[in-house]
Each structure stands twice: as C-alpha cells, then as structure tokens.
Write a structure and sequence with these properties.
Blueprint: E1 2-3, H1 6-25, E2 32-38, H2 42-57, E3 61-67, H3 73-85, E4 91-94, H4 104-110, H5 122-129, H6 138-149, E5 158-162, H7 169-178, E6 182-186, H8 193-197, E7 202-205, E8 223-226, E9 230-231, E10 237-238, H9 243-246, E11 252-253, H10 260-279, H11 284-288
C-alpha cells in the first residue's frame, strides 16, 4: 500500500509559497491573513494555532482576533466589515463553529467574497458550480492536489464520497465532477452504500464515524482518502477507515494524522496569496508558477 503523504506534499507547497511571498514583496504586496475566533473553544484554538504557525513560517502577516463568546451578531459583523474594508487584509476567516446565538450563514455571507479564503461564501460556491471559482474550500482543494501530486488518475474513475457537508463532501463532489470523474455521495439516507463502495476506484471518507464504512466492501486496488480525525479509546488519532484492515488490498491511502490535515492548512496559505494577487491585479501564475 502506498502512503499518500500530506505532510511531505504540504512542505513542498510551503517552499513554493515562501518564494511567492518573497516575489510579492518586491512588488510592495504583503499578503495578510486575519482569523476571527469567538469564545474559548479548545479545538478552534488548536486549528488557528496551526494556521498561525504556517503563516509565520512563510513570514506572512497574520492577525488573530479573539472576541468574547457572548459577542452579538451586529458586533461580529462590524468586525468583519472593518476587515473587508482594510486594503492591507488579503484573506479573512471566521473560525467555525460559532456559538448557537450567532447565525453562521449570515456571518459567512458578511465576508467579502474576494477575501473568503475558506471558500464558503455563496458567491464562491456558485462560481465552483460553474467551474470558474478562484477560491474554493481548502480541504477539497488539498485532496485534489494530493491526488494529482501522487499521479492518481481522476478522469473516468468511479469516486465515492462519504459525507455531504458543505465544507468537504459537496464541494469535493463538484471538483471531482469537473475533473471528469463519476461521483456518488453517500449519506445517512443512502440505500445499500456497500454496493457503491464496492465499485469505487477512489473513496473519500469524511463521515467522522468509523462505523460509516465497511472495510470488507472496499475493493482491491482502491485509493482511500481519509479526511476524518478521531481519537480512539487507546488515546490515538485515527480516521474512519482502519488502515490495518485494508493495507493488504488497497493501492494507496492517506495516513491519519499526516494526510489531508496538513494540506488543508497549506491550501489556506495558497488562497491567501491568490487573494493578494487578485486584489493587486497581479496574475497569480507569475507569482506561484506551476502549482
């Protein structure tokens, strides 16, 4: 079984991004990422810390805005509006999930589409449907990059995606379709999911539930991209698929951790650079080159 190493690929990308940022500096353009968190969610702190670490490695400007957990909808949108209007801010994220009293969709829609480095704004999702998006959700983008980097063919293949979230499953289904795959999306109401899994060339599982997939149904020589990160009873991190049960029959698989996660953060850095380019009328291809 080939290991699809997300850490290695993300480090390759980081080398490329550092050169891109150095080149932008010669044009007096300085990419800046702003992340807004609300409250004291421990997981959010970890995720934002990872983003901050990567930005610092690139010498990219990074600002972490921490708001109280009881901040009002109006106050949060005012903070977003301030960052939207700031020409020094290239990309803006409001870290999800938000407290229950806040309307997530309204908050996402308040972010300027041209600064929406998470790729969640309805305008950017609409552009993705048309296959004309400049900014897309980072986890699906990282998956597509990993497959390409490992010379795994997508066109003409049967792809099964387990999970239909707006963060991973649905945008990835669009990207795979645009790449000429035949895509099936499995969810809680899917009848006989094993019948779909049994004919898959590529399986992407983002269910966050190890019982969501029957390893015995996975066909020989399939490629598995495991997006989920779960902590088992042994205290170790693992994904939806038990690697030991499939390692002798699948062609390739992402490890957990070290697979998709590092790619998500890398794509966020890339999209911040893309935002800086677009906002300054610079062709990203001249900055990033072949990516």
């Amino acid at each position: 079984m080939k290991i699809i190493d997300g850490r290695k690929r993300s480090n390759e990308r980081m080398t490329q991004y550092k050169k891109a940022i150095e080149l932008l500096r010669t044009k007096d353009v300085h990419p800046k990422l702003v992340v807004v968190t609300v409250g004291d969610d421990p997981a959010s702190k970890v995720y934002v810390g990872q983003k901050q670490k990567r930005a610092q490695q690139l010498e990219m400007s990074f600002e972490w805005v921490v708001l109280e957990g009881d901040v009002s909808q109006e106050e949060l949108i005012a903070e977003i509006d301030k960052r939207n209007a700031d020409p020094e801010v290239s990309g803006l994220i409001v870290q999800l999930p938000l407290p229950d009293h806040l309307d997530e969709q309204a908050i996402i829609q308040a972010i300027a589409p041209e600064k929406d480095v998470d790729g969640f704004h309805p305008y950017n999702i609409g552009q993705l449907v048309k296959n004309e998006a400049k900014l897309v959700p980072c986890t699906p983008k990282g998956i597509m990059d990993l497959l390409e980097a490992n010379a795994i063919q997508i066109a003409g293949r049967n792809v099964v995606i387990i999970g239909r979230s707006q963060i991973v499953g649905l945008p990835l289904a669009l990207m795979m379709t645009h790449a000429n795959a035949t895509v099936s999306v499995i969810h809680s109401q899917t009848a006989n999911p094993n019948a779909l899994i049994a004919h898959a060339d590529i399986i992407v599982t983002a269910a966050g539930n190890p019982d969501a997939i029957d390893e015995s149904a996975i066909p020989e020589e399939a490629v598995i991209i495991d997006v989920s990160i779960l902590r088992g009873e042994d205290g170790k991190l693992h994904g939806d698929v038990d690697a030991e049960k499939v390692q002798d029959k699948v062609a390739a698989m992402t490890p957990v951790p070290g697979g998709v996660g590092p790619m998500t953060v890398a794509m966020l850095m890339e999209q911040t650079i893309l935002c800086a380019c677009h906002q300054n009328d610079i062709d990203p291809d001249t900055i990033l080159g072949e990516i």
